[in-house]
Fold:
Amino acid sequence: MTMNNSIDPSVAALLPVAKKQGIATVWDRYKAMQPQCGFGQLGVCCRICWKGPCRIDPFGDGPQRGICGADADTIVARNVIRMIAGGAAAHSEHGRHVALALLGVAEGKLPDYTIRDEAKLRSIATKLGLETAGKDIPSMAKAVALATLWDFQNQDHDKPCSWIESTLTGKRLEKLAGLQVLPHNIDAVVTQIMARTNVGCDADPVNLVLGGIKGALADFNGMCLATEISDVLFGTPQPAVTAANLGVLKEDAVNIALHGHNPLLSEVVCDVALQMEEEARRAGAKSGINIVGVCCTGNEVMVRRGIPLATNYLSQELALVTGAVDAMVVDVQCIMPSISEIGACFHTEIITTMDDSKISGTTHVSFHEATAADNARQIVTLAIAAFRRRNPQRVTIPDFKQTAVVGFGAEAIMGAMGALNADDPLKPLLDNIVNGNIRGIALFAGCNSTRITQDSSFVTIARKLARNNVLLLATGCGAGSFAKHGMMTQEATLEYAGESLKSVLTAIGTAAGLGGPLPLVLHMGSCVDNSRAVAVAVAVANRLGVDLDSLPLVASAPEAMSEKAVAIGTWSVALGIPTHLGTMPQISGSPLVAELLTETAKQLLGGYFIVELDPERAADKLLTTIDERRKSLGI
Amino acid sequence: MKKQQLENAIIFSDPARCLGCHSCEMSCAIAHGGCDLYTAALQGLTLRPRNRVVTAGGVTMPIQCRQCEEAPCAFACPTGAIVQQDGMVTIREKNCVGCKVCVMVCPFGAISVKAEGDAAPQWRTNRGVARKCDLCAHTGRDQPACIEACPTKAISLIDMDAFRQAQLEARVAELAQSHRHLTPASNQVGI
Structure:
């Protein structure tokens, strides 16, 4: 059990407010839930059929097999790959939604959306091997959309999904094909996991885990297409200066918090809000409408529009406890059902928007792309009406916010380095990795969890790695942590970066016109945007003529909790990246599965999981891993 | 001055609240195993709970040593390894030869003589000694692990004096209510 809830000062400021008003938060519920079931923690509880639940005694005397005969290894493997299927389904459903929207735009059916980045559309078409010559934008968009949707339809098991095939290094594709884990169809692979884990099917733990890896790679495919097509529709992230933490809420504005994941909703709300400023002022909001982000929707609008981030996953409820949020607009994923009840303690409208993601006690605005602007207008109108009901005496906006320089997608990173070497933008990065100025690269991803003092593991590990000259990238709620704690600033670079990293970041940042170094941690986007980091890694690997598992590149999800994180972590390992987990995965009831993912994976894939709950020791292990990679590269 | 006599405290399980989840068994095994859950599982340690969740007669509940005042195990033990000490029935493991007489005489099936940890049989010994619920004494806990682990609060540690006092007071309170109606009507207020 953690002793402290969070290192976020807003949390310390607002928890007493919640307590005084009798509002339970995630940390109260966590405490009430203790102790949590040991069988579940070990992954040895099987609820796959109604003969169960069965649980394996990990220590001896009790049952060693479930009623059907499944042992701990089988049960653990089935449970964990079902989580991967859940994560893959979530990301890929998001991706399908975006791809269908691109098709709608191409066919002229969605007047509220347009193609904002034609160059990106063209580069995707080329990457997917589609004919571009002589094609206009709508027909190119249609071709890209249909090719993308084919990744959900293809029935030829020997033909891998087109996105993964056009994204990874040749060597990696060969390796994955050899293990028969390259996905051919996202939906089919998710379905296969559900089928093979059904009672009386696949019981071989190794075979099950390989099926899970295939599911995780389907997740990667879904993430790639979701990210890249979102860029086509809404623009590719470019560096922007904004702010993070609950201090971004404004007392004299209609505060709309956008929460969830998919930019299809949030982007249109942002557009429409700009047109409704006057209405907000008429309602008495002197500063008009103030849009802020929560979780990954927050990251999406932050990296594309510089919209400030209110908070990340674990403290989402506290945004409402400020009493200053007039509407919290949610779509899918990582939305705590408790926000309904907390919103009801205030004037706040909690607005759900997706027909397959409702929460009882909230207002539902059925959002559809074809009527997006109308739906968004309805949402903003509800927010303005709620603002009129706001009780100023119940408003507590913590005075905490940090500057955040964000928006470093693959293109923006290349762009910044291009300022140093326009002919060969990769060269500055390669040179500095080779000469050791950059010791390695670490990608921080994943969630917050009540098992860890919120944000503490992210900040502790990152500071240690930065001091040791590791270049830091971040996505998702990890990026949210760094933004809130002032680690996406030039000052953080000057304060925490080791000398050689500082000089590299300063050279690139100055050349790119930032008037100083790049921020200490580069914000690459939401959790679905982890594929952006892979794009950079693949470019580096191809340039060096090596595979991804040779690069001094590591990933870390120090506060992971979601099924999506299980899927991301697993594909990261499958791509050859040593991947740290700072929370205990629910697999330790099977030493066999644990060994498979932390040891055997190294030989099979090059990547492997490093489970280390202590952040200081985790940083040391990541540094050791980076040094091993450097040594085998001979640099 | 005479020393006040106390009965041994007992672990009480409420069958109406028990869901049969076995969390009490797991926490007992861990509490006596000397390491945390994940380490024990990953190392494949053999750990044995000193309680057992049992279903019979239509109810499910954990059973463990009742810390008998006239403990048959203590009388039967040929080496004198079982004694009344520190408010419970205590097994002095170093004196135990693992003869299982205590297992035979315990009416509750609360004693086991199986080896624990990673102890393999070694020529002359199976490394088994008698073990049973010790109320988590010497585990450094404020209260027995099973009580902390029970998600439905079905398990509690009963101090017999306090329990009896509560029962007595409850019954006296009931009698007091009845008594009011026995006294002459002229003394009643509001009638």
